[in-house]
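Hi X.,

You mentioned you wanted examples for the new student's onboarding notes, showing what a folding record looks like when two proteins sit in one file. Here is a clean example. The first protein comes first, with its sequence line followed by its structure tokens.
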Amino acid sequence: MTPTRRTRPATPATSRLALAELATGPTAEEAAVGLRTGVPAGVAVTRIDGGTATVVTPTAFAAADAPLLRLRRAQVVWTLTQFPTVRRVVFTGADAVVLTRADLADLLPPIVVTEPTVGRRVSSPVTVAGTADVYEATVTVRILDAAGRILGTGFTTADCGTGCRGDYRSTVGYRLTEDGVGAVEVYQVSPRDGVPEHVVRIPVRLAAA
């Protein structure tokens, strides 16, 4: 699962809008790097109370094999729990279930990048943040130009080590004479041979620096 960002007019029905955007799916730029949604239209929040969001789903939502259904639920849970009023999600129906992020954490890749998101315009120094479960909690970050040349690099550690997921945040500077496209790469350096592992590549727009 990869976070994305949308800017929309303010509305009191924020959760409903977020689910509608999730069902709409990725932009062309996001789709080009492999992002997609597994959630069909028609998923809706009927109530939020005491940190619990109650969700109804269309028939098509549950008409999937178990792995896909779990991924669909995970996308809904992560989308709704980004809001401070929601800590858990109740899926109603014959197969009713209550889920939190912790229940679905095994679906996350070793490294998740929450900032920046695909296509965002960034400037030096770039703030890079997310979560990771990697060897000795060490995360490496590099900024690349359109040709793949390294413009800047740095590393940081997550606040939890091997075998648990922790938060990380780092700022990495770069030098570039003109605005252009590029990428932020976040990865683990293999303890065996020093090769980058679990590489997450986020295409971005780089401001001259």
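Then the second protein repeats the pattern, sequence line and then tokens:
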Amino acid sequence: MFSFIKTFVFVLLIQFGSLAQAADLNITVNGKPIKKNLYDFVVKDLASRGQKMDDNLNNMIVNRMIAMELINQEAERTGLNKDATYLLKEELARKEMLYNTFLQGYVQKNPISESDIKNAYEQYKKDLGTQEFNAKHILLANEQEAKDVIAELNKGGNFSKIAKDKSKDPGSKDKSGDLGWFPANSMVKPFAEALTSLKKGNFTTTPVQTQFGWHVIKLEDTRALQAPEFDKVKEGLAKTLQQKQLDKLVLDLKSKAKIVDNRK
């Protein structure tokens, strides 16, 4: 019914549609008024999200703000506002809020264009390719173990049984090494390159190294792959472009800054 955005203790954000009942709070707690501008900020934020106000919600808002003021006063009375850990949390939260607020404003001022999203979609389709693959693999700890498995397979060993017995991949080991259907670009580059060079029914005759270990890969089958329609991936592509934009902003600022790191 209502939500909160945390700063060092809180910034209460509760939304409702009409501002009429917020015209004059006229509430004090031990002589200290509840600030109308904070209340109005809460109202404006939540109104922008479409929450409708009623008397019950209004009372909940006011009671929550009174409770928060009481706890804040008690915390200050006991000296919590001067506690070292609290002050660190306050500083970190303020920096994080300023960071997020700046980035939100930057995104609003520098929106991702429709043409940029469409270009990203064309690249996405290109990267996705026109085929998807059904494959199995056996993951080993080192190259020699992978060579031994290949030698065993060359002698007629059963790929599925060896995968169950020897694979180090917890996700596919109990499924006889089966990875299901997937586009090649969903795998790390060495794996994808080895996979796409195989013919149906064949396995790699040399071990394939990735950051996960050493693989022996068998191509079970292929089929045509139809890329998702633009509207289904548009939002995700826009978010990816937006994140790249923000990453570039940070890198640009970093390149202009004097950063000294004396850590050993």
